[in-house]
Amino acid sequence: MKEPPRITDIDSLEPYVAGRVRRILDRLTRQGWDPVVFEARRTPERQEWLYGIGRTHSRHRRPVTFTRSSRHLVGKAVDIVSRSKGWSDPKFFDALKEAAEAEGMAVPFAWDRAHAEWRG
Questions:
Q1: Which are the contacts of 73, defined by CB distance < 8 A and separation ≥ 6?
Q2: 9 close to 38: Cβ distance less than 8 angstroms
């Protein structure tokens, strides 16, 4: 199965989440970071493909998700990374967590620090 495309458009999120994400990005930018939305809303096909990593395909990799019912599917989650450092700067993810929490969002997974979600 070919990888389904990522959706990076903030407007694909629920409006009340999109506004929070814009403020998170603005806060990080004002702090000198270079945040970029890696993924916003997901299609069911993409979620199933991601769930299959390490299971049904790409068996040489570790799983990247442990659920088939991500909040990405309903537009209540976003993955944000540093444009220049990608997934590799712990200080960026500390700043992301602080900015997300200031907007009422959670960064609930130690193993996926790019993931911020609305739990309301």
A1: 41, 42, 43, 44, 47
A2: no
Q: Which domains does the chain have, with CATH numbers?
A: 10-117 (3.30.1380.10)
Q: Please, which residues have CB within 8 angstroms of residue 114's CB and are 6 or more apart in sequence?
A: 38, 79, 80, 81, 87, 93, 96
pTM of the predicted model over 0.90: yes
Amino acid making up residue 76: K
At residue 92, the 3 state secondary structure works out as helix
Cβ–Cβ under 8 Å, residues 27 and 96: no
* Digit-coded pLDDT (tens) for 51-74: 998 888 887 888 888 888 999 999
Expressed in angstroms, the distance from the first to the final Cα of the chain is 34
Count other C-beta atoms under 10 Å from residue 8's C-beta. Answer: 14
The answer to whether residue 1 scores a pLDDT higher than 90 is: no
pLDDT 10s digits, 33-51: 999 999 999 999 999 999 9
Bin 86: left if φ > 0, else alpha if -120 < ψ < 50, else beta: left
